[in-house]
Amino acid sequence: MLNKPKYDLFKNTSYALDGLKDIFKNESSFKAQLLAFGVFGTLALLLPISYIKTSIMVVILFLPLISEITNSAIERTVDLVTLEHHELAKKAKDAGAAMVFASYFVVFVVWILTLLY
């Protein structure tokens, strides 16, 4: 892009932090996922398992958080285009919700496999 501003680590970091603050402030599902991250992350740290398994179990907990951030971006973009009901808008939002759901499924499978083996 010709009008793209020059890369600036500090400015880009501030944009990312602004985005996180806004999502935390306005998305109750993100707050619930942060709570679940804290609870299950603590549980993983307390389990009598190897550091490798603990690391896997904690790192995978970021997946639903990342998915929810992406889902929020999709929802906001759709709402920017139209607030009226439109079938394609619904499909876009449903796809974002499916991504969050799938991320929980992956977390569940990884936790089960990690604890069993």
Q: What helical percentage do the residues reach?
A: over 70%
Distance between the termini: 49 Å
Tell me the β content: under 5%
Number of strands: 0
The biggest beta sheet reads:
none
Order of helices and strands: HHHHH
Q: Which structural class do you get from the secondary structure elements?
A: mainly alpha
CATH topology of one domain: Helix Hairpins
Mean pLDDT: 94
- Radius of gyration, CA atoms, in whole angstroms: 18 Å
> What gross morphology would you assign?
globular
Q: Would you kindly provide a written description of the structure presented here, covering whatever features stand out?
A:
The protein has five helices and no strands. The chain has 117 residues and is mostly helical. The protein is globular and about 50 Å long. It has a domain of 77 residues: Orthogonal Bundle (Helix Hairpins), CATH 1.10.287.3610.
Describe the secondary-structure layout:
Layout: H1 9-26, H2 28-46, H3 51-59, H4 62-81, H5 87-116
Helix pairs in contact: 2-3, 2-4, 4-5
Summarize the structure.
With 117 residues, the chain is mainly alpha-helical.
Brief descriptors of the model:
82% helix; single chain; mainly alpha
